[in-house]
Write a structure and sequence with these properties.
By secondary structure, the protein is of the alpha+beta class. The protein contains five helices and ten strands. The strands form two sheets. Strands 1-7-10-9-8 form a five-stranded antiparallel β-sheet, covered by helices on one side. A hairpin with a 4-residue loop joins strand 3 and strand 4. The protein is elongated and about 55 Å long.
């Protein structure tokens, strides 16, 4: 069965991993111009930056390609006297946009996250497994559209897994043979 889903690898973007305790967060917030998400599995941001909650003292910031360099410098300067970390990770991830009416059905084949709209909705994110690899799943809208952040070394594998899960490519040909 083929699903009505579009899967597109996203263009490069800037990604920063932030670490720090409560005292550090206010300084991060001041530089960003908005509050980091403090509720588990949520996101905050503005038109240029998205902040995703990864843990009680960890966030992933997504910026435009190249915008992360100046932002990292400003964030590092703001917390230079505190125990904190601002780490560029742009080259560590590949991002796949999975969207369409059947996006939930495709992703549900490989994750334990309940993707029902009442449980996981726009503005939420979760670290999870997808097709036997670790990912960060971020729901963007009600279409639904999701950004799936995969470690770069697993991107080819995940691309093949997504292709098979949506019922296209060689895997669907093999499964339809008598």
């Amino acid at each position: 069965m083929a699903y009505d889903v579009d899967i597109v690898q996203q263009l490069p973007c800037g990604l920063l991993n932030l670490r720090g305790a409560e005292m550090v967060c206010q300084r991060y917030d001041d530089v960003l111009g908005f509050e980091l998400p403090y509720t588990p599995n949520t996101t905050t941001g503005n038109k240029d930056i998205t902040a995703m909650w990864l843990g009680p003292d960890e966030w992933l910031l997504k910026t435009g390609d190249g915008d992360d360099v100046q932002l990292a410098a400003a964030l590092k300067e703001a917390v230079k006297d505190l125990h904190a970390a601002v780490t560029p990770v742009s080259d560590s991830y590949r991002i796949f946009r999975v969207s369409g009416v059947d996006a939930r059905a495709v992703l549900a084949q490989g994750t334990a996250v309940d993707l029902h709209p009442g449980s996981f909705s726009p503005g939420q994110c979760a670290r999870t497994g997808l097709g036997k690899t670790g990912v960060l799943l971020h729901q963007l809208d009600d279409v639904p559209s999701y950004d799936v952040y995969a470690w770069r070394s697993y991107a080819d594998y995940l691309s093949l897994w997504l292709d098979r899960a949506m019922g296209t490519g060689i895997s669907s040909c093999i499964s339809s043979l008598p």
